Amino acid sequence: MNKTAFLFPGQGSQYTGMGRDLASNFKVASQTFEEADDALGFKLSKLCFDGPEDDLRLTFNTQPAILTTSIAALRVVQQETGLSADCVAGHSLGEYSALVCSGAFSLSNAVCTVRSRGTFMQEAVPVGVGAMAAMLSIEADQLAAICEEAAQGEIVSPANFNSPGQIVIAGHASAVNRVIELAKAKGFRKSMLLPVSAPFHCALMQTAADRLKEVLSLETVNPLTIPVISNVEATANQNAARVQELLVTQVCAPVRWEQSVNTMIASGITRFVEIGPGKVLTGLVKRINKEMSLANVEDSAGIKAVA
């Protein structure tokens, strides 16, 4: 029997115009954007559909924008195709979309929470102090050793274990640059600084984690109707009492994406449907396991394809 997982994208997947086609063609999608606009008290929908790109790229806007677009696409999938998931996962911010899908949070609570999360993450480290870089064709243990050597009293560590041969590091900008130079000296020449505004998923985010904990402690977590594979543990969680703790830990801990995908495959998943803007996660799954059936839904063409 074929089993399906829904995947939800994280920061970096945003683009001006995302969600516009869905909102124009499906009432449930336009209602989703209205719901988010009402919850936040400003026109997030206009920012998604029309930009400007620079505003959309600000972390405290990006996070609710991607979440809302993902849930709009999810609701259209549910209404138009009858497709359902056996488990769900999201990359970093995407874990909140996965939790909305599982019923743990309402959309209005989730968009307000991630708006705060984005603000806290942005304010945790002054712009320019931190950096992130994708390190390619290097094994996790080799990279961990290089990070240790390059730190020199600063912070730098693996932040995303994305796929075989793709690990993202985060930390102080100077330490990240030292990792790149050290890796080159050791023959690992493929790396690239990422255009991000803060060093996510490393110890520099501790103040953001502390502030998020306070916000989450006021939220009600509803029972989860389907298991959510957590970024922190790369295992299935369906215990509502653990959700807040996992989300707080996630802020400073690495995203174990490759392991999460392998966990889902081991549980019998054969089909992955990425729901929300972009195709980043579809690309990563392809690199992790070429045998999987893949689809992504971000517009009406995607809906037709999975229907």
Considering the chains and any ligands shown, give keywords for the structure.
single chain, 307 residues, alpha/beta, Malonyl-Coenzyme A Acyl Carrier Protein, domain 2, Alpha-Beta Plaits, 2 domains, six-stranded mixed beta sheet, four-stranded antiparallel beta sheet, 14 helices, 10 strands, 17% strand
CATH class of the largest domain: Alpha Beta
Largest sheet: 6 strands, mixed
Distance between the termini: 18 Å
- What global shape is seen? globular
For the residues shown, what is the average pLDDT?
A: 97
CATH superfamily of the largest domain: Malonyl-Coenzyme A Acyl Carrier Protein, domain 2
Give the helix tally.
14
| C-alpha-based Rg, rounded | 19 Å
Could you name the ranges where pLDDT drops below 50 across 5 or more consecutive residues?
A: none
Series of H and E elements: EHHHHHEHHEHEEHEHEEHHEHEH
Strand order of the largest sheet: 8-7-2-1-9-10
CATH fold-level assignment of the largest domain = Malonyl-Coenzyme A Acyl Carrier Protein, domain 2
The total beta strand count reads: 10
